[in-house]
Task: structure prediction
Amino acid sequence: MKRFHILGPALFCLLMALPAETEAQASRTTTVVQVERSGPAKRTVRRKKRRVRRRTYRTLRQLPAATRAVRYRNISYYPVAGKYYLARKGVYVRTFPPVGFRVRTLSVAPRRIVVRGRPFWYAQGVFYIQDGEDYVVSETPVGAVVPELPEEAEALDWDGVSAYELNQAVYREVDGGYEVMELLDEEQ
Result:
């Protein structure tokens, strides 16, 4: 046992005295070679069972407090932030008010748009005309240019032109906004 206290420092000195070449032989070197590829630089990876969550803007589970129904032709419309909803199977579905629908005030600030000399008020995808103190929903005027479309507008290909459909009207993108190209017939 007396020799073990001498053996420890002796092993330490022996390890320190080993040549550096033995350490270099123990490590491995890696060479990186870059290869030029012909073809696409990135590869598309498709993942199976990937869920896409879409945000739904067309339904509400619950109406905000103090929302009062507006009745028109025995149908209750619920105005929420300038949009209108109908009660369907326990949820409230986004809809557009029909032509002739009349309200006293608009809950969002409308934009005044003049089409062929006739003034219209535009808010949330709906065109209104002013009748005294009331606002009345009117037909969408062809040729009107609106600054923006609501998120409910659906993109579509209209005879090779990228367009948007909203409230039975087809819009195309122009400088300064979106122009009404054509009205669609209502589905029966």
